Amino acid sequence: MSNPTLRRRALVRLALGCLIASPMPARSADAAVIAPIQRLYDALLGSMKVGRTVPFDQRSDRLAPIIDAVFDLLTILETSIGPAWNGVSPDQHSALLAAFRRYTIATYVANFNTFNGQRFDISPDTRALPNDEQVVTSSITSASGEVHRLDYVMRQINGAWRAVDVLAEGTISRVAVQRSDFRRLLLQGGGAALVASLQSKAAQLAGA
Fold first, then answer.
1. Is the dihedral of CA 9, 11, 12, 13 positive or negative?
2. Residue 89: its pLDDT value, please?
3. What is the pLDDT along the chain (208 residues), one digit of tens a residue?
4. What is the pLDDT of residue 9?
5. Backbone phi, then psi, for 186, in 5-degree steps?
6. C-alpha dihedral sign at 175, 178, 184, 186
7. How far apart are CA 35 and CA 136, in angstroms?
8. Which of 101, 102, 165, 205 has its CA 20 to 30 A from that of 72?
9. The whole model's pTM is what?
């Protein structure tokens, strides 16, 4: 190929072809971490779009397996309670987890119950933490353009990435917010008081 212009064009086409055929390994790793949050947002959008045309309990049943797959609810509960977890009986462990699971599902169903053109966006790049956890950055944009940031702290558990905390506006830890409330209830009435509180909150969300 003697023509310099044609030679340059051929090199450009070759370079572009190599870029398309060889995705960056880091992006593939990021995609594995991001996938659970994408699955959560797809499910939330579906729940929002049907809204109150579908009974609350049915929406909860649809969302429940997604919550179970995306979040490590046991780790979140243990971290929120802290050292007092070890002082709770095994029977109360089960009751606490069941109540916390119901409350978590009800929270998502109640807060994502109407679709008015909202948009979920997830950053394609994750942020590494020193303890091998990864942070997925996302945002929820309302129809009016108001943006709220939600970050998910992800931990690899048995080969799967699960969320162990949610950071509102990138800094406000849900686990930290729950911690003071949970520990206060445990001090006042033990595991039974916390179970009762979680059950009451879930019932209020379903009723609202």
1. positive
2. 87
3. 555 544 444 433 433 333 333 333 335 669 999 999 999 999 999 999 999 899 999 999 999 999 999 999 999 999 999 998 988 888 899 999 999 999 999 999 999 999 999 999 999 999 999 899 999 999 999 989 999 999 999 999 999 999 999 999 988 999 999 998 999 999 899 999 999 999 999 999 998 6
4. 46
5. -65, -40
6. negative
7. 10
8. 205
9. 0.83
Sequence letter at residue 89: S
Contact 48, 113 (CB under 8 A): yes
Phi/psi at 20 (5° precision): -70, -35
Closest residue by Cα to residue 71 from 127, 132, 155: 155
β-strands 172-173, 160-168: how paired? antiparallel
Provide the pairing of β-strand 160-168 with 127-128. unpaired
Whose CA is closest to 67, among 204, 197, 202, 183? 202
CA dist list (Å): 81 to 9, 37, 39, 88? 63, 25, 28, 10
10 Å CB burial of residue 20 (0-12, 13-18, 19+) is exposed
**Cβ atoms 1, 10 nearer than 8 A:** yes
Give residue 14's pLDDT: 34
Contact 177, 165 (CB under 8 A): no
Q: Which of 71, 79, 136, 55 is nearest to 105 (CA)?
A: 71
Tell me the residue length of the chain.
Answer: 208
Token digits of residue 118: 């909202």
